[in-house]
Write a structure and sequence with these properties.
The N and C termini lie close together (about 10 Å). The chain has a single domain, classed as 5-stranded Propeller (L-arginine/glycine Amidinotransferase, Chain A), CATH 3.75.10. The longest helix has 17 residues, at about 30-45. A three-stranded mixed beta sheet has the order 2-1-15, with helices on one face. Strands 3-4-5 form a three-stranded mixed beta sheet, covered by helices on one side. A three-stranded mixed beta sheet has the order 6-7-8, covered by helices on one side. It is an alpha/beta fold and about 250 residues long. The chain has helices spanning about 30-45, 90-95, 135-145, 160-165, 220-225, 235-240, and strands spanning about 5-10, 50, 70, 75, 105, 115-120, 125-130, 150-155, 165-170, 175, 190-195, 205, 210-215, 230-235, 250. It contains six helices and 15 strands. It binds citrulline (CIR). Citrulline binds next to helix 4.
């Protein structure tokens, strides 16, 4: 179960964030509204949400998930692979001091963006993507080992982040899309397959007794409901335009 979440309000510069999506420029005002709806969904799941102020210097800083990996026993500051995102970690360290007594850190040349990290109980799957390299994954695993956790690397081909295509919904249920449908490391999960035309909906988040699902993907929504979950739908269309999804918008711990 999670108790807390940290989010960051989108900045006006947000519309100039990194993207490969080809869906046009995000609408800033709509993004602000959707962000508030997202916060409300987290609150509905029982979380205490800390809202950090917009940071104009970093257009992608609302995708706060990529700055740290937070667990019950430790906080690990990441080292984003995207050059324009590296500075996002500075302030996060200060913020995390009010929650954790020791804070670990991944150092260059290792890079890790925690959009590439999926927690399954005490194990952490780490996708090797264009943003997360082998050195970064190895550092992450060795820090996790110190706290009694385990980790393993997953080779990736197509997607931005591991959690672009896979989401753990607890109870051994895994939402999966594309290259992850036949990933050997995931063969013991009960796979809930995401159809090609709803690939964006592979990025859902389990939060306590709910699954938060992006609005507009009815087949995925029905599959999650059929698997026995209570769902909350949130429209994140403006974040999708920057390759972002539900998981990226918060740190949950
Ligand atoms: C980026 O390319 O870094 C941002 N525009 C999107 C980050 C998405 N983050 C995530 O999946 N954890």
């Amino acid at each position: 179960m999670f108790t807390n979440a940290i989010v960051r309000t989108p900045s006006k510069s947000f519309v100039n964030g990194i993207t490969t999506a080809n869906l046009g420029l995000p609408d800033y005002n709509l993004a602000i509204k959707q962000h508030q709806d997202y916060i409300n969904a987290l609150i509905m799941c029982g979380l205490k949400v800390k809202v950090l102020p917009a940071d104009e210097e970093y257009p992608d800083s609302t995708f706060v998930e990529d700055t740290a990996l937070l667990t019950k026993k430790c906080a690990i500051i990441s080292n984003p692979g995207a050059p324009t995102r590296k500075g996002e970690i500075k302030e996060m360290k200060q913020v995390l001091k009010s929650y954790y007594s020791t804070i670990e850190k991944v150092e260059s040349p290792g890079t890790v963006e925690p959009g590439d990290i999926m927690m399954v109980g005490d194990h952490f799957y780490i996708g090797l993507s264009k943003r997360t390299n082998e050195d970064g994954a190895a550092q992450m695993i060795s820090i996790l080992n110190k706290y009694g956790y385990s980790g393993s690397a997953i080779f990736m081909k197509d997607m931005l982040h591991l959690k672009t295509g896979v989401a753990y919904l607890e109870n051994n249920n895994l939402l999966a899309f594309g290259e992850f449908l036949h990933e050997d490391e995931f063969k013991n999960f009960n796979i809930i397959e995401i159809d090609d035309d709803e690939s964006y909906a592979a990025n859902c988040i389990w939060v306590n007794n709910y699954v938060i699902v992006p609005k507009g993907f009815p087949k995925t929504r029905d599959k999650i409901v059929d698997a026995g979950y209570s769902i909350i739908e949130v429209d994140v269309s403006e974040f999708r335009k920057l390759d972002g999804g539900l998981s990226c918008l918060s740190l949950r711990f």
